[in-house]
Structure formats: C-alpha cells, structure tokens
Amino acid sequence: MSRSIRPKFHQRSAEIQGYGTVNDYPIGLSAEVRARSCEALNQLLADTITMRDMYKKHHWQASGPTFYSLHLLFDKHYVEQSRLVDILAERIQTLGGVAISMAHDVAEITNIPRPPRGKEETPVQISRLLEGHEILLRSARAAARQSAEDGDDGTNDIIISDVIRTNEMQVWFLAEHLYPTALVYAGQHPQPPTDQPTPPPPH
Question: How far is CA 175 from CA 25, 44, 138, 168, 184, in A?
Fold first, then answer.
C-alpha cells in the first residue's frame, strides 16, 4: 500500500532569533561590539532601503525636459543602492545579528522623511534625494568612527568603501542638475529671487 506524501501548508512557529540580538559567532569580536555594529548597520540598512525605493519612485515619475537622462540616472542609482542593501544585510548576518527587511519595519526606524504618494516636480525630487543622502551619510560617518574605535574592521571597510563612497558619488551626480543653467541659450541664467521691488525704468 503506497503512502501519500502531502505538503504541509500554513506552518507557524516561534522566532528562532529575535531582532536586536546577536548569535555568538567566533569572529574575534565581542558580543557587545557586534551588537553595537548591528544596530548601526540596521539603521543604515533601513535608510538605504528607503533611498533605494525613493529612487525607483522618482524613476517612474520623472518628467520634463530632462526626463530621459534622469529616468536613466535614477534607475542607475536604484541599482547601486540595491547593491548596498545586500552588502549591509549580509554584514549584519555575518556579525550574528538579524537584518531588518520588511517595509513596515523599515518605515518605523528610517531617519529619511517620507515623500508624498503623488508626483512632484523634478527639482523637488532631486532635493528630496539629496536631503536623504545627507541624512544617511551623517549616520554612516558616525558608524564608521564607532566601528573603527571598536576594532570592527570589516564593518568599517563596508561603511567607508561602499556606503559613503557610493552615496557621495550619487550626491555629485544629483547636485549638478540643480544649477540654474540654460538648456539652449548660453548666458540666459534665471535671476535669483529678491525681496526688493523692481525699480521703474529710467525716463
């Protein structure tokens, strides 16, 4: 008589490791150092996931005379941020921690302000991205200093070589789009706003 083997659906169990804890991996770093690094890395991970998703949002919603170039640039930066997401998450796991991952959990701890659901003008899209990069970079520099002090060289290397350098390069590429230069006629730069009324023309 043959035995029927069926898949077992709807399985649940208790977590095998809680968020914010670290397993005792023998990598030459104390549990205290690894826990501190994981906390900092999870903050960077949440902010990087937010940056990644904001780039995809603006990639889809790009518009105006620079649509094509920004459509491509936003997607290029999205891919680069996606790479950082994986690097950060795997470093957390390597340290024995638990990487944050789900959107609702990321939204709770990210330091980057949430953009509206709707579509915004191109200068606003770029400004939001630049502000997000600065928030992320400030956290990254603090985390790099702490990991260096703790002797966590692997974490320090990732933060400096990958996170900081990638975000700095992306800032450069974005900021260059905000210069008020003319698209067609040289020298036709918009005048900065002024609170003073325009004087009447001479008689």
Answer: 42, 22, 17, 11, 20
| Greatest alpha-carbon span in the chain | 111
Q: What is the CATH number of domain 31-178?
A: 1.20.1260.10
Locate all alpha helices (DSSP H) within 9-152, ordered by sequence. Answer: 31-61, 67-94, 103-109, 122-150
Q: Tokens in use for 2?
A: 């043959």
**DSSP-assigned letter for residue 66:** T
Q: Where are the domains of the chain?
A: 31-178
Q: Which of 16, 12, 14 is nearest to 96 (CA)?
A: 16
Distance between CA atoms of 74 and 57, rounded to whole angstroms?
9
Centre a 10 Å sphere on the Cβ of residue 95 and count the other Cβ atoms it contains: 24
Q: Structure pTM?
A: 0.89
Q: How is residue 69 written in tokens?
A: 């170039």
**Separation of alpha carbons 11 and 128, rounded Å:** 42
Torsion of CA 37, 40, 43, 48, to 10 degrees: -80
pLDDT digits (tens, 9 = 90+) for 149-184: 999 999 999 999 999 999 999 999 999 999 888 777
